[in-house]
Specification:
Length: about 280
């Protein structure tokens, strides 16, 4: 079986082109739907897909304004309610009737929303360093990053920048080239630009306080849950993770020492936890 995914293009209900990567698998098994963080793309899940392809279908989505999906003329098109609508459109277009959803950061928030809006579509949910309370310090760090286009000349220049600005992620030295290639793409000017529309920043809420989404978490159906947290995360606090575990004591939990936001999911503890989480499903 080829390790290369298939690129699928489809239309949102307003006609904007959306895109996803698909790795084929056993059609009898529950598909794995992977949703990236804000300013990230489907490429982040290539390693996860290679682990599970063949056994189950794996699909990773590019949000509007990200990766190979279309850019919007109006930044308001990138608001969270539009992303939720696009997720619904993706489920229909990609024939994903019931999924195990792995969501990193913003992707996990969309997963919680799906559990409320269409609980029958959610067979299991894994939250990668996200939850129903997002800390304001982390939000500001994200805002500072996604609105910038440094237009790097070389991969080495981009790697040096990312080493300096990103939180600790346990990335080995050879892995920084991949981080650059999944974060930036070569433009027509020959320089490296973000794989997202920096106008996304304009669609983010301007509030300075924490984002509270507890009704989404408390309303999740009785499905297999997994929470992965980087102990150095500025997005998901230890107190929030503890409160989540108290509310759903059956939820599996992985805590990654020295790792910030968001874990890359190549950590051995994360992979073992994901294996067990998916083992609950056909």
């Amino acid at each position: 079986m080829s390790a290369l995914p298939r690129r699928i293009a489809f239309s949102a209900r307003d006609g904007l082109r959306l895109s996803a990567l698909e790795w084929p698998g056993d059609p009898r098994a529950t598909p794995l739907l992977c949703l990236p963080g804000i300013a990230r793309t489907a490429l982040d899940f290539a390693g996860i897909a290679l682990r599970y392809r063949g056994r189950r279908r794996v699909v990773a989505l590019d949000y509007a304004g990200h990766g190979e999906s279309g850019r919007a003329a109006d930044p308001a098109r990138y608001r969270v309610e539009m992303a939720i609508r696009d997720l619904m459109d993706a489920l229909a277009a990609l024939h994903l009737h019931r999924v195990a959803l792995l969501g990193t950061s913003f992707g996990g928030i969309l997963g919680m929303a799906l559990g409320i809006l269409r609980p029958g579509a959610l067979a299991a949910l894994a939250l990668n360093d996200t939850g129903p309370r997002i800390e304001p310090t982390g939000i500001e760090e994200v805002r500072a990053f996604i609105g910038r286009d440094p237009a790097f000349a070389t991969i080495d220049e981009a790697a040096a920048f990312l080493r300096q600005i990103l939180p600790p992620l346990g990335i080995p030295e050879p892995g920084w080239r991949t981080v650059v290639e999944t974060t930036y793409a070569r433009g027509s000017d020959g320089r490296l630009h973000p794989r997202w529309d920096t106008g996304i920043l304009q669609a983010m809420p301007a509030e300075s306080g924490p984002t509270e989404l507890w009704p989404l978490f408390h309303g999740l159906p009785a499905i297999p849950l997994l929470l992965i947290r980087g102990e150095a995360s500025a997005i998901l606090s230890a107190d929030t993770a503890q409160r989540m575990r108290a509310a759903r004591p059956e939820m599996a939990f992985v805590s990654l020492p020295g790792i910030g936001h968001a874990p890359t999911l190549i950590e051995p503890a994360s992979l073992v936890a994901l294996d067990h989480w998916l083992a609950h499903l056909r």
